Amino acid sequence: MSGTAVKLGLAAALAAANLFPAAGATRGLLVHPGEFSAKWIERARMTGVDTLALHPEGGPHSFTSLTNLLSQMRTDGFRALVDRAIDAGLRIEYEFHAGGYLLPRELFAGHPEYFRLDEKGVRNPDFDFCVANPEALAIVAARARQLVDSLYRSTDRYYFWLDDTDAGGCRCPGCAALAPSDRQLKALNAMIREMRKSNPRATLAYLAYRSTLERPRTVKPEDGIFLEYAPIERVWDKPVSAQNIADPVRLGELIAYFGGKGAKVLEYWYDNSLFSQWTKPARLFRPANAVVRADLAYYGRIGFADIASFACYLGDDYEAAWGEPDLSAFAPDGIVCRGFWGEARKRDQTTFECRADADRVYFSFNVWDDNVTAAPVGEPERTLESYDRVEVFFAATADLSKPYCGIEIDPYGRVLDYRGNYGKGLDYSWNVRTLKVSTRIVEGGYLVKGSIAITELAEFEIDLRNCWFGAFRADYAPGGRLIDWYSFRPSDGRPANFHQPNMFAPAALRP
Ligand SMILES: [Zn+2]
């Protein structure tokens, strides 16, 4: 491979390196806090989920379930589970109905004007609040900011929905002039301004759900408001694209109104609380896999960047009664890893993607490294071990009981390859025959694209529908001094050792 490399702007280079379709939307699952467990963390990781969201029960119990979550959040046990999830590469979010929490009901005695004017013409503290009352909105905004401060290790995406009812609207003249969508957005605008005083990167969901499915007419979203679309009225046995609820014109209008950035779908595919009529014990759950797959493709095409589903009533009690739920349709085809972890658990923005077609497995690394070092031309293969490089491993089994395929590639496309024998070292006499590689050094890093024949991976007994992979990189300074080891998931070894089963993850590389 030639030693010349062209420096390009990273964006231009990425566009030129368009080996794959768009990386795909991030994927999330929402679970009840009482069902949040080590099992769920493992299950999410195995399904290729990016985000686990804690969702305290909605409906009439929203206030109690939210306050329970906030108490639980202060316990060591809960925090240890959240830490564990984040260490496993997941993000943690919190999604809940909060109307009754944002304006404390005990204020009603002194300030009935803060509360809604109900259909009988009297102030009523049952749901939500009067958005025409500036003092009420100021309290709501301050409470939203407190929530930002108390949600343990949340991402910057917040979900403080109004109460779970269509009856919550205030009928005072100021509120009655607004549609439900505009009323919601007015409250959210007040919240996000205050929330950003605590977290300048905070964003807040506008929930398009039931009475707020129509886009707002008069109120404009403040910076940081994003769309969250929850089609609870849909039917479950046919794709959402065949239903009026997800009419692409209306959806497109909603997305456009909120600027498209971060638009999210919140689906019910795995909401066994709904399918169990919100009553335990949980019923046996059989997901509509063909519908899930069709809907995922549809939402991706429309432009949703974040696709999530409720996954309640599938906790440890479910598993004990019915076994492991089938989440296979939710797993993305191929692999997308965003961000690599250094040894000291510092995360960079390196990405790794992997897909297969009928003949080959394709992978790409986009490495973030502002000081690229490479071996001199003409040195032997093992010299690469003292320079920057990426590493990809493919294995047939989780325990590495069979030899695995190891390929390391430097920024100039030179290859160090071996057959890994777990516990017995690396056999460098093995040489890959079908590998194709191209690389490019760009501003701020380097790109590596490669592909390998499926027949060659089959010699390692690798079944692409159910295989194991690892993705790593080494960062060296000039002169052969190691800066850091990076892996697609945090290493629990110190120093990092990638040649062990816990550094592999499952993948379905379906052609
Ligand atoms: Zn009002």
Fold blueprint:
Layout: H1 10-16, E1 26-31, H2 38-46, E2 51-54, H3 62-72, H4 76-87, E3 91-97, H5 99-102, E4 116-117, E5 123-124, H6 134-150, E6 157-161, H7 173-176, H8 180-198, E7 203-208, E8 225-229, H9 248-257, E9 264-267, H10 272-275, H11 289-302, E10 306-310, H12 316-322, E11 335-338, E12 341-342, E13 351-356, E14 360-368, E15 389-395, E16 404-409, E17 415-421, E18 425-427, E19 436-442, E20 445-453, H13 454-458, E21 467-477, E22 481-487, E23 505-507
Parallel strand pairs: 1-2, 1-10, 2-3, 3-6, 6-7, 7-8, 8-9, 9-10
Antiparallel strand pairs: 4-5, 11-13, 12-22, 13-14, 14-20, 15-16, 15-21, 16-17, 17-18, 19-20, 21-22, 21-23
Helix pairs in contact: 6-8
The structure holds zinc ion.
Overall helicity: 10-25%
The CATH architecture name of the domain at 10-16 and 338-507 reads: Sandwich
As a percent range, the share of strand residues is 15-25%
- Low-confidence sequence ranges: 1-23
Radius of gyration: 25 Å
Shape: elongated
The main sheet orders its strands as: 1-2-3-6-7-8-9-10
In words, what does this structure look like?
The structure is a single chain. The chain is an alpha/beta fold and 511 residues long. It has a domain at 10-16 and 338-507: Immunoglobulin-like. The chain is built from 13 helices and 23 strands. It has helices spanning 10-16, 38-46, 62-72, 76-87, 99-102, 134-150, 173-176, 180-198, 248-257, 272-275, 289-302, 316-322, 454-458; strands at 26-31, 51-54, 91-97, 116-117, 123-124, 157-161, 203-208, 225-229, 264-267, 306-310, 335-338, 341-342, 351-356, 360-368, 389-395, 404-409, 415-421, 425-427, 436-442, 445-453, 467-477, 481-487, 505-507. The strands form 4 sheets. An 8-stranded parallel barrel has the order 1-2-3-6-7-8-9-10, surrounded by 4 helices. Helix 6 crosses helix 8 (180-198). The longest helix is centred in the middle third of the chain and has 19 residues, at 180-198. The protein is elongated. It binds zinc ion (ZN). Zinc ion (ZN) binds at residues 117, 130, 132, 170, 172, 174-175.
